[in-house]
Design a protein that fits this description.
heterodimer; A: five-stranded mixed β-sheet; 14 strands; globular; B: alpha+beta; seven-stranded antiparallel β-sheet; five-stranded mixed β-sheet; 24 helices; 41% helix
Chain lengths: 538, 621
């Protein structure tokens, strides 16, 4: 397929309005295979404005007289307005953008063409999270092994090639357990908490069905987990659905672990919102944030009505519960919902941030996302196909990853010195998850990424982000290593709307940014004076 | 002391306010002449000043003892369980007596002794000099003069002795106008903007009824507009909702008729009255004090309390005022009913937007002295210092502080002081420990001889100046001369650090301000060290005595970290402790938070699903 078939018109004269703060830009508008370009001419600054077409979420066109207006709502929640000369040109450009921004093919997407200066293909793809993480676990305990039973993705298409499993369980047993779990997602290690010797596991729901089927190997696997932890260890199975929903799942072949079949494991239900209701919550919040004229009462009632902060609270307190059970009660935890690719990952990754100081570093957090989201099979392509502006009825879209980022932001607000990265990184991850020139968030699983040769044919986001020039935006200048667990307050009074994300474009927090710059100055000023001290005393 | 029957009760339990299980600390309760003191088993002290107590409640006897709930004006709520009912009853009765004094002379300020001699005390009172402040604004000048009409409080009891009025306003005009204004509060100068030559004036409502008019009052308003050489018309802002103002006409009061006054532009602003504000705060506190509060209930409660709507209304009024001066160059006359509540809010906030001096520590004190204390905001009645009419109590000044906090949130670099400064001032409007806020007007304060018998708060705050500095403050930045806040609804948030200042578990576990403050301190210290060392090196080089040099160097490289002096009489540091203690706080046990309480069920042998029902049920409904 040629992009040129989809481009109906090459260029037009246009004016771009980028919200109340930024000045309008006038120049020649151009549609290419992957971008929308506006060139105001060489003498103006910036001399080129560029928008990745993939980041357009919805497009609205109006024509009046001999000119037209296109409103582009982007996946990063920006709203752009283009005033274009000529009715035909407007309609053609709108159609071109519509067609090009909704292309589904992965291998024709921009990451496969993006070749930035200063980066080499293959850099930072050396991340092999399960393997790397296993090295860390192996230093702490020998109860676990790295299994390559999923080498060809035949056992579980959404798992990576290698997974960490109890040493006492062989690959055949894993295969049987996989057949007993939805999508083949048998219980694997997510995190080993060395101070207490407990572990965090994740899986999908067991396929007990209406007949209450059992699987000896699956039961054996969980028994082996407790045996490997410490004598007399207990376990909790945290189901992210309500008890009723879990029961209902039996009718469609799913279900949850029977008490009798798994002695020493207790089941807890903490229902977390997922899927369409979560997407709707996101859409309604963004709608509310787009109206600066509304009265105080209307705003508060919409903030309440969208329930977003309630979801943040539930996610955080569930993660805290898991972390607490591990650290304080010395219990092992298995988390799953239905498929085990959404709320499950939300809970396991947040629990690690709370407990593990390593995951709060720049490198550690990137590794956590790579390991607990990307490799763990969160279907990014399906979940992030559309953001909050799309008119299309959501099919598989859900802002689970955004909810995770929001929870991390709340943690960062309550522990402003304990995360090595700042809001900048979280914003960047949000943007790149929805539309990116990098390959990191492409596809739905490791299997798909292998088929598309993502690793060899695209650049990794991590190598893009870890360039020195990006650091000041992404890092937290106040970071000091905090070896303790961080227990956030989950009371509604302690949670705040993430203005930096949801109100980023409607309401630029300029003075706050200036203040942040000042913090940087103070911190770097301190380093300089500290640095100069030895020379003075030498 | 005659009210105190029991001075010490042991084995008292202090319940965790937000805990859904009955988590508690056990300790000893002491009752002194001025404070209630609880010392728990970890030797942590909780001091509660009797004057801070808003209400004491004895709940029905339980198996573990007799519950006593104390609500404080600084939003602390403590829930004790006293083992024996008789002790509880004694304490309850004592606190009822001690928290509601009938006479000013029984208030803490009259017995508080910070060990200063009389001249120090006097110096303290002279720290803020309003005549000096008017001079700073540029009055008296050719348009504005100091009037001696009220020198003996003859015209208006609730105004200060020294008032500034237009040069052309003669005494008969002033007297005539004051007779036409509620409580005699005629239009006077509150703030003079030197560059624009425009003024903020304040007064009370006119006694216009349906048709009455007063030529002197009309002349006075004309004199005010004439005192502005640039713009002939002036704004008259009635800060009340139109409906309230109209209702007042039936009582012979009301608002200015635009036809009778030349060159005025009349404007209603719509800030609600003290009764609405009181019940709004009450609703807010009810919501935020709920145990196990769900996010949605919090926001719907926040909405139905209307509190943030009222805050926004005050802010919008101040912005309107500032714009009239900055954009239109017009003078503004502000009034409400009596001109001491909403008028004080709007005038002071407007001046704060216009003049960066009021955003400094000293300037903010001056602003409070000028627009609140001297112009007769009835602190004693609004804060309920004495046992009086509960209908007179209202959080008007608290709202002003909250507006300032919202400005600080929007302009983190525009203020010399930090949030802690606002909280400390709020603490002391209720504490009755210093004389500044006692009484309802200057005349009353003079009669009470406060300057001889009590101390002023301001020098004590200045002494602790370091604690109240905003590390991000940038006074040079020109862009912050006039603040133009954005009042879209998104910008108004619940002020957790005020309304939950004593509920530590709700606060962030680490404070950016503290750390930056420390860094700034360290930077300065290090720079000083470098200078010291360099000069020493120079000195020593001449002498060539290396041995001593290294010893000296080692000594001065580790300067003692600056320690902040905290006196007991001040509120305990409720925000975050500085560096060392930080470690223990952030590693604080998850038991401080509510999610832990579901987890307590872990230890029970029964199936977890059953024991968790409570938690699950609440979350789904």
């Amino acid at each position: 397929m040629e992009f040129s078939e989809l481009i109906r018109t090459g260029r037009a004269q246009a004016q771009l309005l980028r919200g109340p703060e930024a000045p309008p830009l006038r120049g020649t508008l151009c549609v290419t295979g992957h971008h929308l370009l506006l060139s105001p001419g060489p003498q103006s600054t910036p001399d080129l404005w560029l928008l990745l077409l993939r980041s357009v979420d919805s497009i609205e066109k109006r024509v009046a007289g001999d000119s037209g207006t296109i409103i582009l709502r982007c996946k990063d929640l920006r709203v752009l307005q283009l005033e274009i000369e000529g009715v035909e040109a407007t309609l053609d450009i709108a159609r071109s953008i519509e067609a090009l921004s909704s292309l589904e093919s992965v291998i024709t997407s921009f990451p496969f063409f993006y070749r930035p200066k200063g980066l080499r293909l293959g850099d930072a793809w050396h991340f092999l999270p399960p393997e790397r993480y296993y090295k860390r676990v192996a230093r702490e305990t020998d109860a676990w092994r790295l299994s390559e039973v999923n080498e060809d993705f035949s056992l579980c298409p959404s798992y990576p090639r290698a997974v960490i499993v109890p040493r006492a369980v062989d690959d055949d047993a894993l295969a049987r357990s996989a057949r007993f779990r939805q999508g083949g997602r048998f219980p694997v290690l997510s995190y080993h908490h060395a101070p207490s010797g407990t572990v965090l596991l994740r899986s999908s729901q067991p396929l007990t069905g209406p007949q209450k089927r059992r699987c000896a190997e699956d039961e054996e696997l969980l028994r082996a987990v407790l045996a490997g932890a410490r004598p007399g260890a207990r376990g909790f199975i945290l189901d992210t659905r309500s008890a009723q929903a879990a029961k209902q799942a039996r009718m469609t072949g799913g279900g949850t672990e029977a008490k009798a079949a798994y002695p020493h494991w207790k089941r807890l239900h903490r229902p977390l919102e997922r899927g369409r209701p979560l997407q709707e919550s996101f859409v309604r919040l963004v709608e509310a944030c787009g109206d600066p004229e509304q009265s105080m009462d209307r705003w508060l009632s919409r903030l309440e009505g969208c329930r977003w902060l309630a979801h943040v609270k539930e996610a955080l307190s569930t993660a805290c519960l898991v972390a607490q059970a591990m650290e304080r009660e010395g219990a092992c935890i298995l988390v799953h919902g239905a498929e085990g690719t959404d709320s499950t990952l939300l809970v396991t990754s947040l629990a690690q941030l709370i407990l593990d100081p390593m995951s709060r570093t720049m490198a550690g957090f990137q590794e956590l996302i790579e390991r607990e989201w990307i490799q763990a099979g969160h279907p990014f392509q399906l979940r992030c196909a559309h953001s909050a502006f799309s008119h299309a009825r959501p099919k598989h879209e859900a802002p689970t990853f955004l909810l995770f980022l929001d929870c991390v932001w709340q943690l960062g607000r309550q522990f402003p010195l304990s995360l090595e990265f700042g809001e900048g990184l979280l914003l960047a991850l949000f943007e790149h998850a929805y539309a990116s020139p990098f390959g990191t968030f492409l596809c739905n699983s490791e299997k798909e990424r292998c088929l598309c040769e993502v690793r060899t044919r695209t650049h990794s986001l991590w190598s893009g982000l870890n360039q020195p020039k990006e650091q000041r935006k992404l890092r937290n200048p106040l970071y000091v290593l905090n070896p303790l667990a961080i227990w956030p307050s989950v009371e509604p009074q302690s949670l705040r709307l993430w203005q930096g994300l949801f109100l980023r474009w409607t309401h630029p927090p300029e003075p706050a940014e200036v203040a942040w710059e000042k913090v940087w100055q103070i911190v770097t000023g301190r380093e300089e004076t500290e640095g100069s001290q030895p020379t003075a005393s030498a | 002391m005659e009210h105190i029957r029991t001075t010490k009760v042991e084995q008292v339990k202090l319940l965790d306010r937000f805990s859904t299980s009955n988590k508690s600390l056990t300790g000893t309760l002491y009752l002194t002449a001025t404070h209630l003191l609880f010392i728990d088993s970890h030797q942590k002290e909780t001091w509660i000043l009797h004057h801070h107590i808003a209400s004491v409640e004895k709940l029905a006897l339980t198996t573990s003892g007799c519950p006593l709930v104390i609500q404080c004006k600084n939003f602390r709520i403590v829930h004790f369980i006293v083992p024996r009912e008789r002790d509880c009853h004694d304490i309850y009765n004592s606190l009822l007596q001690l928290s509601k004094q009938a006479k000013y002379e029984d208030l803490y300020a009259f017995s508080y002794n910070p060990k200063q001699n009389d001249s120090e005390r006097l110096q303290g009172w002279q720290l803020i000099d309003l005549a000096e402040e008017y001079k700073r604004m540029g009055v008296p000048n050719s348009h504005w003069q100091l009037s001696d009409a009220n020198r003996e409080y003859k015209i208006c009891e609730t105004y200060p002795r020294e008032l500034y009025v237009p040069q052309i306003a003669s005494k008969p005009i002033i007297v005539g106008s004051s007779k036409f204004r509620s409580k005699g509060r005629f239009p006077v100068l509150s703030y003079y903007h030197q560059d624009k030559e425009a003024a903020i004036c304040r007064c009370s409502q006119p006694l216009s009824g349906f048709s009455a008019r007063c030529l002197e009052d009309e002349h006075l308003l004309q004199a005010i507009s004439k005192a502005n050489p640039v713009n002939r018309y002036m704004y008259v802002m009635d800060t009340r909702p139109k409906l309230n103002a109209m209702a007042n006409r039936a009582a012979g009061k009301g608002y200015e008729n635009e036809d009778n006054y030349s060159n005025i532009r009349f404007q209603f602003v719509g800030i609600e009255n003290i009764h609405v504000m009181r019940s709004s705060l009450q609703k807010l506190l009810e919501v935020s004090g709920t145990k196990g509060l769900a996010v949605n209930d919090f926001y719907s409660g926040l909405e139905s309390s209307g509190w943030l709507r009222h805050i926004k209304a005050v802010m919008d009024a101040a912005i309107f005022l500032a714009k009239a001066i900055m954009v239109e160059n017009a003078s503004v006359l502000v009034h409400c009913s009596d001109g001491w509540d909403r008028t004080s809010q709007v005038c002071s906030l407007g001046s704060l937007l216009l003049d960066s001096y009021y955003r400094t520590i000293k300037g903010f004190m001056v602003l409070i002295e000028k627009d609140w204390i001297s112009f007769g905001h009835k602190f004693s009645e609004r804060c309920g210092h004495l046992d009086g009419d509960p209908k007179e109590v209202s959080p008007v000044f608290t709202q002003f502080l909250e507006c300032v906090w919202h400005l600080m949130e929007q302009f983190p670099q525009a203020f010399e002081f930090n949030e802690e400064f606002l909280l400390q001032i709020h603490e002391h409007i209720h504490s009755c420990q210093f004389g500044n806020f006692l009484g309802n007007c200057q005349r009353e304060r003079e009669e009470l001889k406060l300057k001889e018998k009590t101390y002023s708060l301001w020098p004590f705050l200045l002494e602790d100046r370091k604690k109240y500095l905003n590390p991000l403050y940038s006074f040079k930045s020109q862009r912050f001369t006039v603040l133009e806040p954005n009042t879209v609804s998104f910008n108004f948030k619940f002020w957790r650090n005020m309304y939950h200042q004593f509920d530590r578990t709700l606060h962030p576990r680490q404070s950016v301000f503290n750390i930056i403050m420390n860094m700034n301190e360290q930077n300065k210290q290090l720079q000083k060290d470098i200078q010291d060392l360099e000069s020493k090196i120079k000195q020593r080089k001449n002498k060539q005595t290396d041995g001593v040099l290294t010893k000296e160097l080692l000594h001065s490289v580790c300067p003692e970290s600056p320690t902040l002096k905290t006196s007991l009489c001040f509120k305990e540091q409720t925000l975050l402790p500085v560096n060392d203690a930080l470690r223990t706080i952030e590693g604080s046990s998850p038991a401080d938070n509510r999610y832990s309480e579901y987890a307590e069920e872990f230890s029970k042998p029964e199936p977890a699903v059953v024991s968790l029902e409570y938690g699950v049920a609440r979350m789904t409904c």
